[in-house]
Each structure stands twice: as C-alpha cells, then as structure tokens.
Amino acid sequence: MKSSERNDARVKRTYAQLINGLVVLLNEKSFDDVSVLEICEASGVHRATFYKHFNDKFEFLNFCFDSMLETISFDSLKLGSSPSIIKSNIMHFISCILEFIDDNRPLFTSACIVNPSIAFLSSFDNAINNFCTEKLNSVLTAPSHRIEISSVYYSGAFVGVVKWYIQSNNPGMYDDMMDFLGHRVDELCSFYETNLYGLQ
Predict the structure, then answer these.
(1) Model-level pTM?
(2) Are residues 51 and 121 in the same domain?
(3) Which residue, 22, 43, 156, 179, could crosslink 17 as a Cys pair with Cβ 3.0–4.6 Å?
(4) pLDDT tens digits along 126-182
(5) Rounded to 5 degrees, what are φ and ψ at 94?
(6) Does one domain contain both 53 and 96?
C-alpha cells in the first residue's frame, strides 16, 4: 500500500481499531492462537478490509511494531562524532526505547508473560533489531563497514536486555537499566575513540 493511503485518516482509524482489537485478544490468549477472524471481530473491522491491507496476521503484527516504533521521536538527536555527543545520542535513543516499552507494557506483558508467543517475540526481535541498527547508524560517524558491524553487535545485545526488561515486568528498574547501559555506552565510545578514529 502506498504511504499516502496509509496516511489517510480512515485508514489510520482502521489500523488503530485492529491494533486495539489485537491487544484485547492478547489478554485472553497467545498470538499463536489468535486468528484473523478473531482480530476482525474484536476490532469491528470487516475481514475483507483486513485482507485489503495485510496478507496474514504475521504481516499485520510486523506492521504493528513498525507503526508503534515510528511514534518515537528522535528530533533532538544532534549530529557529531565526538564521544560525548555519541553518548548523548545513544542514551537518548535507549531512553526512548525503554519509555516505548513502558508506554506499551500491557501489550508486551500479555504477549510475553501472560500468554507467551513465539511468533510475537520473533516479530518483535526483527522489528527492534532493524530499528536499532538503523538509528545507531544515524548517530554514529566512522567508516561505514565498521558502523554496520558494531551496530549489529550492539543492537543484538540491547535487544536481549530489552526482552529481559519486558519479562521482568518491573518499570521501576528504569533507572538501574539506564545506569547499567550508560556504562556500556562509555565502553562503546572508548572503542570508537581508540579503534575507529585512531585516537589515543
């Protein structure tokens, strides 16, 4: 579907209804056991309308993650290559992701704890990995191939921590998470300073 169509007010409303319907269902059963018909009935959207936009429930789930992640604003990111600016950018990115998890915690709690779903976690893994790699690439400056390698590495590690944060179901650990990850970012910046830029 063209982006202009996806930005149509009626289409946006349909997507919102479908997402809300899915959230309701995930409080009752695993995503693996949810059918397209059930999603449509829970959201009040005709099944033909669903299939006009999505091939199956898995494509719809991928869209859910992508659309929710797109709501995270990175307007305050500053361009630059110094270690202090890199750390500021990455810590802002991390805080946005953790706040995103907290804002959508009912969804993640249902799908990851109450009614665990392999398909849900797999889709989330892919979405957050791609998102993290893309955003890290946008705030780091160094030879492109080294950015790609380090982005994939650190994104994978961060996704593991995020999944643990979801499964711990304890938003009160936000400060501890930020403190721990801040030290890891210091290590990353030190690596960039000594290895990617050739600084001593």
Answers:
(1) 0.69
(2) no
(3) 43
(4) 888 777 777 766 666 555 566 667 767 777 788 788 888 888 888 788 899 899 988
(5) -60, -45
(6) no
